[in-house]
Structures are given as structure tokens and as C-alpha cells.
């Protein structure tokens, strides 16, 4: 702590809590500090909130070091220097408010008046320094530009890319003087082949391209993609699995395309699901009283950001990922369209909507950067067949199977059905927000078209049969209301009765196969199916009435004072269509309960639980092979598709390493022979990396596991990425080691522990070479931390697949233990891939499990040394570094390690 007089001293947690309770203090990232102090009521002047107000849409790592770098201040050398930095940062932020050249001045004075009424702590501090403007400031909704309709883009020309032109384009993108990589040139030529004209409908050019880390695959496929877009006048879609790669792609695309064309339109557009973007109508409701307390402060800060954002993307865009976590509750989610309740042209902000702008820009773009789920959902529910992606590149292609598995699944659950009820009926009792049912969204239709009005009324009446608020409590008390709740109650009872997993006592979710079900479940399923049919039928009639109105429009539909009536009806018809399909899928699922098993599907019942608390009850259906619908919906309509990844093939000694990649690509369900392309990594793994299998940490010995993690982090001086297969063990290890290491100047951040989103945790880790980060699956893939900040990856045990019902069915169909081994090798390869991201990187991959089968060592790149060692031997090697990459360990690392 540092007093206003300038004296800095170390204090205990108790003294810190007392000081913070008595006097407003300057701090950074209040929720994180509160978590470390064990004092959830901590409040004060959080510098991150001031930064978000003064510099909206500007990046800042939410640490003292990150704040110093963002404000151009000296980075603190130790914890003792941090309090003084916080004072300097506050002064720098205030000075910005007084600066006449402050670029984000517009709107600040008006927002501050609202924040002062909300008693935002910073309001009184900043108020004297922000001058009242001479003219009234425009409200956010008046400042945002409107998008304009554009004509339909012509179909792309059918061309073939000349190999020499592709090579020249690649050379231009990589830049003069760039390292010559033969593997990248060959990869670019293979990628170019998917842009050739196809020979027959339903037979796309399909390429499976493995590109080892360091090949430069991003520019490798952007070179032919940009060349084809320019010459053919078409749109290329690149799909990723992680938001981190989307950010990287946006940056790399600037080599091929300008930010804007001469007509002002963007040639590169990032597309995400609607739930990622700021909903202006939700924001308006929040600003006008829909939010209260701290949530209202968040709404004002988001409104500040909304005026300066590039594209309105709240999840992975230019909204600081840490902003929502400062306010603890799900305020960010409430400002997006989470429930698919958009009223399209009925919204007063429709012409300024970020979502609609992105959708329209993508129809005219040369490159659309999307994610696997969005591409598949859009393909399945495409509004306009002419806008269907025809040239597709799936980067992180090893995740396409998992994305298809989720996209083409059917889940009848309490949470899903209550959302459908809300969409049909709208607000009930005293629920807040702008939720509107069918009657409100289509009131003009009901008054104009009698049959349409009757269909709406029938759907709303039948919607009363769906679960409502409090359904979980009623199930626990065995007092379900209505046929759907009765079904969920029967499913819950049967699942508890038949569970043998041990999940009940452990607090985990439980499940049971949908076979040999008791009569109560079958009878309840029949009644529930009838209830769903009574909802689906009037929705179908309503869809028919909407089509009739569009075919023979009334005068009011296109009247000058009607704000996009036609677009609103189109939007409603589209939303109706996919909900009708959803209900039909549920009916099909229920019809099969009690009947013979369908060999193409896996069905099961489940009670979802976390820490012994139930949060959903469900009936699940998954395709045994989800690439079958993927092939029909995505591959067959396309002209060219490439799946690419550094871990596409199985690293095995078998003759055909491509077998699993081909099977998991959907190629077997279309009449094409895929092009198989492999470019090996140029990195020297034999001298830049070591795999250490530690043999003396017993499975289940948490104290030993925690001690091993602490000593490894000390030996490496930080820079450790720790990967866990269970959240409970992660939390236990973090609780045992975090304080000890923090005192040594080696901070440890933890997913599922620290109140920070995963993307921001990675930003913090990347920014501080002495920090370490531990987490679960989300950190095993898509984390790109080149350089000294990541020099050791630690896995606490072999990542065996969870033996749930779905996995067991696929294991049986996929070759038994060989199927498991393929999954494990893929996970190990992905985890190892976090370690070496550039030719100068070096480090250790540590497995804290003696039970590591030799057959799995093929997961690591050829030539990588794999050593079975004791923990003490591992610590010596970690402290010594690999090659010339010494780790500069802290003095604390001397314990249990021999320093070089």
C-alpha cells in the first residue's frame, strides 16, 4: 500500500481489507484483488473502469504492467513499485481528460452526468477535468451511421489460378526479404486447387492439408484466396474454431486487402453469431432503466464503447474482455441477442444494427472470417441460397468433427423448452427486459389477417404447455406442471435410478442410455410429443400466412412510414422456420423412445449438475458420425473446401496416417477423392524441445501434484502453461501454490478460479514472462504465445477421453482402444503445439504421470527427445533450459533444482 503522502509499505491481508473498507483506494482489477484477499465486498477506484471510460475500444492488459504500457509509463520492476504506478496512472488518465486532443472526448461529458447520478466512484474525480461542450452532444443512437442496402453480387467467374501467379502473390504477402519456405509455397499451390471449377454438382474440390507449426499456413491459403477473390469476383470464407485465430486472421488479412475499398465498403468482414454483438435495443432499454446499480454503470461504459467500436463485437472484438468481469454478473450477455428475440426491421435501430451491418457487408466481402459453428448453422438454415458459401477454408480443421457434432445434435431440455416458451409467449408476471412474444412482434399481421391472428393465438395457447419459471424446483418436489415438465420429471427419476457412474456422490452430471426405459418415461414422452405437435401445427400455419402476405403484399407492408415491414416479415418467417424444425426434431426424438435403436444415432438421458447443484434435465440425440449431415449440408453445395491444421493426421506408426483425417472430414459421404497435402514443420524439435515423463508422482496424490507444479514453476522462473483434465484438481492445486509463488514474484493465474475471461488470462500470461497460467481444455488449443513467456507446458495426467455414453458408442464403432489412442495422441499433439511457436522458441513438455504408454509417444514431432525421469531430474533439466534458452529462474528455484 502507498499513502497519499508517498510512503509505500507491505501490509497483511487483514490490514489491506481494513484500509479498503475505511477509505476509497486506487486499485486495478477489483474482482481479482477481492478474490486474492478473500474479501468479495471490496470496492474502490478501479483504474480499469476509468481506462474503459476514457479510452473505449482500446486494448489494455489488465495488470499493472499492461496499464503502464498502455499509458506510456515506466513498467514497475517489483510489487513495491505498483502502488506508485497506480497513482501515476490515475494522473495520466486525468491529464488525458484535460487534453484538447483527447480523441474520445465526444460523448464523455454526457455519459459522465449519467454516471454521476449512478454514483460511479470515478465520476466525482473526473468531473472537474471534463469540460462541458459548447453544443449538446449527440446520443449514441444518433451518432451511429446507417448501413445501406447493396445490390446482389454477381456469381463468381469460373477461373483456374496459374501456379506462377499464386507464387507471386505469396511472395507479395510475405514481403520483401522474408524467409524463403519451400513448404509454404507447396502448401499455397495445394490450397489453390480448391478454387478450380468443379466438375459436377455435389462434388466439390476437397483438400485435406496438414501444415506443421511454422509453415505459415495463414498466408499460405490467403495468397490463393485473395488472388481468386480478385480475379473471380467472389467471396472466400475462412472458418476457425477459436477467437484468437480470428484476431490473427484479421491482422494477417491486411497484407492482402486494405481496410476499406474506394467506395468505403470493407473487403474483409468478421462474422459471428448474433449473441456476440451488441444489441442496440437491449442497450437502450438498459440505459433507460432496465439495469440498476453496478449493471447500469456497465451499460454506460458499453455505450461509450459502442460509439467507437469497429464492428460492435463484444466477445473477442475490441471491447476489453475484462470489462464484463469487473461487474461480476452477466451484464455483457444481457446486452446481446442471447435468445434469438431480434425483431429485425421492427427495431428502431435496425438501420444501425451492428449484426445487420456485418451480415450485409459479408455478402459484398472478398474474405469472410467466421467460426465453424456459424458456417454450419448458416448452411443448414440459409435464407438465400445465393449467399451460401461456396469456397470454404476450415482452419483448425481438427475441430470440424466436434463442431458438427454440436451443430447437428438434438437436445430436448428444460432450458431449451423454457426459451421456446419465452419466444412464443413473451414476458410473464413481472419479468423485466424487452422480451416480446409472437403477439407483440406480429400485432399488425394479427389485425390484418384473421387466419394469421388465429394461428398466433393458438400457438400462444399451446405454448402454455411448455415449462415455465420454477420448473427445476417443481421437479425436485415431484410436482411437475404440464406434459413437458412431467416428461422431464420422469427422465430425472429414471436417470437417478439407473446411474452407476458415481457422479451423484461426486457432484457431477449423470446420464443413462435411452434403452429399456420404464413405462413412465414412454408414456410421458408420448404426451409431450402431442403437446409439441400442438405448438408446431399453428406455427406452420402462421408461416404459411407470412408467405402469403409476402406473395400478395398489402398496401401497409411497403408504405413509406412502415420501417422495413417486408424485412420484418421475412425475419419472422425465417425464425419460425428453424423453430418449427427444432420442434420436429424433438418430436422425432421422443417418437423413438421405447422403440428399436437407430444405428445412425446415439440417444441418452441426462441430469446436468455442477457441485451437486442441478441446472438442467435433458434427452440427447447425436449422430454416430456427424460428418454425414456435414457432408450433405456444407460439402455438397460447395465448389471448393479445404480442412487444414497442424494436427490433422494421426501421428501413428500405421501405414495410413490419413485414415482418421479422411473419416473425420466427411469425404466418405461425398463422391470425391480428397487431395491429401502435408507440409512438415521447419522447426528443429530435436534440439529445441524435450518431453519429460515424471515417474514419481503417484496418481491421486494431490499434495505431491501441487508440490510438483510449484517446484516446476520455480525452476523455470514462471512461463508455465499447466493443463488439467479436471477442474476440481486445478482448483485444489492453485489453492495450495498460488500464495507461495506470488511471494516469490511468480504470479499464477487460473481458469475457473480467477474472475477473468480466458482470452484476458492468455493476454496477461503473454505479457508477463514471470507469470504462469493453469487451465483446462480451452487452453490446450488456440493459445498462441511465442517467445519467452511460454517455455514449459505441464500436463497433470494423460488426457484420456471421458467414458460417457456417446464416447463408448463411437469407440465401439471406431476400433476400440485404437479409437481412444487417436484421440489422446491428437490432444497431446495440440498441447505440445503450444510450446514451440517460432524458430527461436525452446522449452519442455512435462507429463506428471508415470502411466504414460509408450505407444502414445508418437504424438510428439519426430526427433523430439522423450525422457522418463524423476521429479528432481526434471527440475534440473527445466532449470538448465533447452539449447541456449536459459530460463533465468528465480532464487526460489534453488529448492529441489540444480541451477546451471
Verbal overview:
The chain is of the alpha/beta class. Helix content is 44%, strand content 11%. The protein has a 7-stranded parallel β-sheet, with helices on both faces. A 7-stranded parallel β-sheet has the order 16-17-15-18-19-14-20, sandwiched between helices. Helix 2 links the parallel strand 1 and strand 2 (45-46). Helix 17 crosses helix 18 (400-407) and helix 19 runs antiparallel to helix 22 (450-463). The longest helix is centred in the middle third of the chain and has 33 residues, at 519-551. The chain is globular, with a radius of gyration of 29 Å. The two termini are 37 Å apart. 46% of the residues are buried. Residues 885-900 have low confidence and may be disordered.
* Fraction in beta strands: 5-15%
Mean pLDDT: 89
- Distance N to C terminus: 37 Å
Count of distinct strands: 20
Strand order of the largest sheet: 5-6-4-7-12-3-13
Largest sheet features:
7 strands, parallel
Please work out how many helical segments DSSP would assign. Answer: 36
Could you tell me the radius of gyration in angstroms?
Answer: 29 Å
- Poorly predicted runs of 5 or more residues: 885-900
Helix and strand content put the structural class at: alpha/beta
Kindly state the percentage of residues in helix.
40-55%
Write the layout of secondary structure elements.
Elements: H1 13-22, E1 26-27, H2 30-37, E2 45-46, H3 47-54, H4 64-71, H5 82-98, H6 108-117, H7 121-126, H8 140-143, H9 163-174, H10 182-192, E3 205-211, H11 217-232, E4 236-240, H12 243-253, E5 268-270, H13 280-290, H14 294-306, H15 331-334, H16 354-364, E6 367-371, H17 372-380, E7 391-394, H18 400-407, E8 410-413, H19 414-425, H20 438-441, H21 443-448, H22 450-463, H23 471-476, H24 483-498, H25 503-506, E9 510-513, H26 519-551, H27 565-592, E10 601-610, E11 613-623, H28 627-635, E12 640-645, H29 659-663, E13 675-679, H30 685-688, E14 689-694, H31 702-716, E15 720-723, H32 727-743, E16 748-750, H33 758-767, E17 772-775, E18 792-795, H34 805-814, H35 817-832, E19 843-847, E20 866-869, H36 871-880
Parallel strand pairs: 1-2, 3-12, 3-13, 4-6, 4-7, 5-6, 7-12, 14-19, 14-20, 15-17, 15-18, 16-17, 18-19
Antiparallel strand pairs: 8-11, 9-10, 10-11
Amino acid at each position: 500500500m502507498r499513502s497519499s503522502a508517498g510512503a509505500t509499505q507491505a501490509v497483511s491481508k487483514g490490514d489491506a481489507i481494513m484500509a479498503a473498507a475505511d477509505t476509497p483506494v486506487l486499485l486495478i482489477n477489483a474482482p481479482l484483488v477481492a478474490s486474492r484477499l478473500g474479501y468479495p465486498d471490496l470496492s474502490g477506484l478501479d483504474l480499469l473502469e476509468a481506462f474503459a471510460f476514457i479510452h473505449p475500444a482500446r486494448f489494455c492488459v489488465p495488470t499493472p504492467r499492461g496499464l503502464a504500457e498502455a499509458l506510456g509509463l515506466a513498467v514497475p520492476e517489483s510489487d513495491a513499485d505498483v502502488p506508485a504506478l497506480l497513482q501515476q496512472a490515475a494522473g495520466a488518465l486525468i491529464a488525458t481528460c484535460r487534453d484538447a486532443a483527447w480523441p474520445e472526448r465526444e460523448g464523455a461529458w454526457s455519459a459522465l452526468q449519467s454516471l454521476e447520478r449512478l454514483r460511479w466512484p470515478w465520476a466525482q474525480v473526473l468531473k472537474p477535468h471534463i469540460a462541458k461542450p459548447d453544443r449538446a452532444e449527440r446520443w449514441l443512437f444518433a451518432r451511429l451511421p446507417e448501413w445501406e442496402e447493396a445490390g446482389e453480387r454477381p456469381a463468381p467467374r469460373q477461373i483456374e489460378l496459374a501456379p506462377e501467379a499464386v507464387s507471386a502473390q505469396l511472395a507479395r504477402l510475405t514481403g520483401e526479404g522474408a524467409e524463403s519456405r519451400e513448404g509454404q509455397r507447396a502448401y499455397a499451390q495445394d490450397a489453390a486447387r480448391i478454387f478450380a471449377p468443379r466438375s459436377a454438382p455435389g462434388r466439390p474440390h476437397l483438400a485435406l492439408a496438414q501444415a506443421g507449426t511454422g509453415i505459415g499456413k495463414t498466408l499460405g491459403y490467403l495468397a490463393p484466396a485473395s488472388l481468386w477473390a480478385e480475379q473471380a469476383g467472389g467471396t472466400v470464407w475462412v472458418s476457425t474454431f477459436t477467437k484468437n485465430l480470428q484476431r490473427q486472421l484479421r491482422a494477417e488479412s491486411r497484407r492482402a486487402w486494405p481496410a476499406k475499398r474506394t467506395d468505403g465498403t470493407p473487403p474483409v468482414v468478421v462474422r459471428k453469431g448474433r449473441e456476440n454483438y451488441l444489441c442496440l435495443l437491449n442497450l437502450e432499454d438498459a440505459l433507460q432503466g432496465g439495469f440498476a446499480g453496478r449493471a447500469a454503470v456497465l451499460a454506460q461504459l458499453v455505450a461509450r464503447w459502442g460509439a467507437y467500436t469497429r464492428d460492435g463485437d463484444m466477445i473477442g472484438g475490441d471491447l476489453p474482455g475484462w470489462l464484463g468481469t469487473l461487474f461480476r454478473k452477466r451484464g455483457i450477455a444481457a446486452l446481446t441477442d442471447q435468445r434469438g428475440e431480434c425483431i429485425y426491421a421492427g427495431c428502431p435501430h435496425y438501420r444501425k444494427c451492428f449484426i445487420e451491418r456485418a451480415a450485409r457487408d459479408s455478402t459484398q466481402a472478398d474474405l469472410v472470417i467466421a467460426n465453424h459453428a456459424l458456417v454450419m448453422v448458416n448452411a443448414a438454415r440459409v435464407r438465400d441460397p445465393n449467399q451460401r458459401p461456396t469456397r470454404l477454408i476450415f482452419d483448425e480443421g481438427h475441430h470440424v468433427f466436434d463442431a458438427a457434432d454440436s451443430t447437428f445434435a438434438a437436445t430436448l431440455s428444460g432450458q431449451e423448452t423454457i426459451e421456446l416458451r419465452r419466444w412464443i409467449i413473451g414476458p410473464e408476471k413481472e419479468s423485466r427486459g424487452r422480451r416480446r412474444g409472437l403477439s407483440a412482434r406480429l400485432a399488425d399481421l394479427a389485425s390484418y389477417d384473421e387466419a394469421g391472428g388465429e394461428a398466433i393465438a393458438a400457438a400462444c395457447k399451446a405454448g402454455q404447455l411448455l415449462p415455465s419459471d420454477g420448473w427445476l424446483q417443481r421437479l425436485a418436489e415431484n410436482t411437475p406442471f404440464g406434459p413437458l415438465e412431467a416428461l422431464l420429471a420422469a427422465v430425472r427419476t429414471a436417470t437417478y435410478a439407473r446411474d452407476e457412474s458415481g457422479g451423484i456422490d461426486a457432484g457431477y452430471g449423470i446420464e443413462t442410455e435411452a434403452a429399456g426405459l420404464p413405462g413412465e418415461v414412454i408414456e410421458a414422452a408420448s404426451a409431450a410429443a402431442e403437446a409439441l405437435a400442438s405448438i408446431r401445427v399453428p406455427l406452420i400455419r402462421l408461416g404459411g400466412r407470412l408467405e402469403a402476405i409476402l406473395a400478395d403484399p398489402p398496401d401497409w407492408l411497403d408504405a413509406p412510414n412502415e420501417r422495413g415491414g417486408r424485412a420484418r416479415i421475412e425475419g419472422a418467417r425465417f425464425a419460425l422456420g428453424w423453430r418449427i424444425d427444432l420442434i420436429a426434431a424433438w418430436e422425432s426424438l421422443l417418437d423413438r423412445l421405447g422403440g428399436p435403436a437407430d444405428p445412425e444415432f446415439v440417444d441418452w438421458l441426462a441430469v446436468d449438475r455442477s457441485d451437486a447443484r442441478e441446472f438442467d434435465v435433458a434427452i440427447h440425440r447425436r449422430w454416430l458420425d456427424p460428418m454425414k449431415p456435414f457432408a450433405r449440408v456444407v460439402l455438397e453445395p460447395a465448389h471448393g473446401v479445404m480442412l487444414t491444421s497442424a494436427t490433422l493426421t494421426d501421428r501413428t506408426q500405421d501405414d495410413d496416417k490419413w485414415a482418421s483425417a479422411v473419416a473425420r472430414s466427411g469425404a466418405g459421404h461425398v463422391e470425391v477423392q480428397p487431395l491429401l497435402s502435408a507440409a512438415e514443420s521447419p522447426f528443429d524439435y530435436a534440439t529445441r524441445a524435450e518431453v519429460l515423463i515424471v515417474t514419481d508422482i503417484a496418481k491421486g496424490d494431490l499434495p505431491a501434484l501441487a508440490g510438483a507444479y510449484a517446484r516446476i514453476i520455480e525452476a523455470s522462473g514462471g512461463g508455465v502453461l499447466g493443463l488439467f483434465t479436471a477442474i476440481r484438481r486445478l482448483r485444489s492445486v492453485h489453492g495450495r501454490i498460488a500464495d507461495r509463488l506470488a511471494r516469490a514474484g511468480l504470479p499464477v493465474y487460473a481458469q475457473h478460479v480467477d474472475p477473468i475471461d480466458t482470452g484476458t488470462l492468455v493476454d496477461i500470461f503473454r505479457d508477463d514472462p514471470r507469470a504462469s497460467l493453469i487451465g483446462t481444455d480451452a487452453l490446450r488449443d488456440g493459445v498462441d504465445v511465442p517467445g519467452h513467456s511460454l517455455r514449459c507446458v505441464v500436463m497433470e495426467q494423460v488426457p484420456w477421453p471421458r467414458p460417457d455414453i456417446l464416447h463408448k458408442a463411437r469407440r465401439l464403432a471406431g476400433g476400440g482402444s485404437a479409437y481412444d489412442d487417436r484421440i489422446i495422441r491428437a490432444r497431446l499433439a495440440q498441447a505440445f503445439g503450444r510450446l514451440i511457436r517460432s524458430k527461436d522458441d525452446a522449452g519442455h513438455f512435462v507429463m506428471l504421470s508415470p502411466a504414460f504408454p509408450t505407444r502414445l509417444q508418437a504424438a510428439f514431432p519426430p526427433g523430439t527427445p522423450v525422457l522418463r525421469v524423476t521429479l528432481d531430474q526434471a527440475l534440473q533439466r527445466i532449470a538448465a533450459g533447452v539449447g541456449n534458452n536459459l530460463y533465468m529462474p528465480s532464487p526460489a528455484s534453488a529448492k529441489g533444482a540444480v541451477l546451471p
